[in-house]
């Protein structure tokens, strides 16, 4: 069985982080996450993240350094986060229920997608907590 990489982008502006509220699937609807998606065949992780954030949020980004550790989900998914820098476009939740800017103090109070919680200590540090 092949492993599918799923990439997520941590868009930080000043001391705030962009988080997105899922619409689907039903078991994750209403939970918050770092936006992103699956890497397609023949695509680099950076290219996939640029494509996903353009599709989901309407923004252009430059992909930077890795954030935290890989997070295995089930038998065949690996979730991997990267820091991203907004370079153009206007944020819009095309594929999410809502978008929100949050500070370090807000991270623990959000109802996160379970896998993304592993990145909270690193995100907190990046936000200057």
TrEMBL record:
The EC number(s) given in the record are 3.6.1.55
Q: Which domain of life is it from?
A: Bacteria
Cofactors required? Mg(2+)
| PROSITE patterns named among the record's database cross-references | NUDIX (PS51462), NUDIX_BOX (PS00893)
Enzyme class, first EC level, given as a word:
hydrolase
Q: Which residues form the Nudix hydrolase domain?
A: 2-125
Set out the biological process GO terms recorded for this chain's protein.
Answer: DNA repair; DNA replication
A molecular function (GO) held by this record is: 8-oxo-7,8-dihydroguanosine triphosphate pyrophosphatase activity
Could you tell me the keywords of this UniProt record?
DNA damage, DNA repair, DNA replication, Hydrolase, Magnesium, Metal-binding, Mutator protein
Under Pfam families, the record lists: NUDIX
InterPro entries named in the record: MutT-like, Nudix_hydrolase, NUDIX_hydrolase-like_dom_sf, NUDIX_hydrolase_CS, NUDIX_hydrolase_dom
Q: Which reaction does it catalyse?
A: 8-oxo-dGTP + H2O = 8-oxo-dGMP + diphosphate + H(+)
Q: What family, per the record?
A: Belongs to the Nudix hydrolase family.
> Which protein is depicted?
8-oxo-dGTP diphosphatase
Look up and give the organism this protein is from.
Mycolicibacterium sarraceniae
């Amino acid at each position: 069985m092949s492993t599918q990489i799923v990439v997520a982008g941590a868009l930080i502006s000043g001391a705030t982080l962009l988080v997105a509220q899922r619409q689907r699937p039903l078991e994750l609807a209403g939970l918050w996450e770092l936006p992103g998606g699956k890497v397609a065949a023949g695509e680099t992780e950076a290219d996939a993240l640029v494509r996903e954030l353009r599709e989901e949020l309407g923004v252009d980004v430059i992909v930077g350094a890795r954030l935290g550790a890989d997070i295995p989900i089930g038998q065949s998914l690996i979730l991997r986060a990267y820091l991203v820098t907004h370079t153009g476009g206007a944020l819009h939740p095309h594929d999410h229920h809502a978008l929100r800017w949050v500070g370090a103090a807000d991270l623990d109070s959000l109802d996160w997608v379970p896998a993304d919680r592993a990145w909270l200590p690193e995100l907190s540090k990046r936000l200057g907590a």
